[in-house]
Amino acid sequence: MPLEFAGPATPLDDNSIARAANKLGCEIAAVRAVIDVESRGGFLPDKRPKILFERHYFSRLTGRRFDASHPEVSKPVWGGYGQGGAHQYDRLTEALGLDRDAALRSASWGAFQIMGDNFRTAGFADAATFVAAMVSGEPAQLDASVAFVKRNKLDDELVRHDWAGFARAYNGAAYRDNRYDEKLAAAYALHRAGSPSVETPRPTLRMGDRGQAVKDLQALLGIGADGDFGPNTKTAVVKFQKARGLFPDGIVGRGTWAALGG
Predict the structure, then answer these.
(1) For residue 157, what are the CA distances in angstroms to 94, 177, 206, 258?
(2) Which residues contact 145 (CB under 8 A, 6 or more apart)?
(3) Chain-centre distance of CA 187, in angstroms?
(4) CA pair distance 227, 159, nearest whole angstrom
(5) Element (H, E) at 154
(6) pLDDT per residue over 18-50, tens digit each?
(7) Checking CA distances to 225, which of 171, 188, 233, 242 falls within 20 to 30 Å?
(8) Is residue 20 part of a domain?
């Protein structure tokens, strides 16, 4: 009988990583740094996503109805994880028998350990759809992480290489205990120096530039997309930069691309 939650376990590839960098408006090296630090692979050997079941989430989501009868999976304090790996699915299975939706929302899933309770922030209509995507492969897990980062407005931290700011928001207040910021900085430096695929996914644009990237910019600005970065395009860029609190220089670099969402 096939295991529930077992899937194709599709691994990440260069195209998936480049697509993520493009969505975030940051360097590919920055995305690879996050992958290095946050991800130890998204799947168990049996092709189920790696999970960690959080009993305090389940307790909260079920109104503490099961705290007395099922303390291993429902308790208002964090901890009690037991072993990692497949053991976490034993805990999940117990919770699924009590309240399936709350159980799915009470585990963190995949390479980037996004809580099921954050399904909306990750771009999904419900927890079941989110979990199905996590089961499908690491590219979908990365896409969910990108959505989570963008909706929490952490893409600017990646663009600026503000590793402490990113780690504080993504990993929590105790990020320094695990030196997440230092690890991110070191991983970024490694990829920036040694990877052949670290070019900014969107080029810096200014007056006089022409081509497809300018057309993409103009489309995002909602103006005529003729591919010519002339005075009208610069005016639109400056207006956008002022509205978003960016330095209004009319030059489209990483920060402006990130704010545009392109």
Answers:
(1) 39, 20, 23, 10
(2) 20, 34, 38, 111, 112, 114, 122
(3) 17
(4) 25
(5) none
(6) 889 888 888 888 999 998 888 778 999 999 999
(7) 242
(8) yes
Going edge to edge, which strands form the sheet with 114-115? Answer: 51-53, 107-109, 114-115
The model's pTM is 0.70
Enclosing domain of residue 159: 1-50+110-201
Strand 114-115 with 107-109, pairing: antiparallel
* Cα(93)–Cα(106) distance, integer angstroms: 12
**In the block, residue with structure tokens 């990646």:** 158
Residues 136 and 231 in one domain: no
Q: Do 177 and 232 share a domain, yes or no?
A: no
How many Å from the N-terminal Cα to the C-terminal Cα in the chain?
44
For residues 38 and 114, the answer to whether their CB atoms sit within 8 Å is no
Q: Is residue 78 part of a domain?
A: no
Residue with tokens 């960016």: 246
**Whole-angstrom distance, CA of residue 4 vs CA of residue 48:** 8
Domain total of the chain: 2
d(CA 168, CA 154): 10
Q: Does pLDDT of 198 surpass 80?
A: no
- Residue 205 is classified by DSSP as B
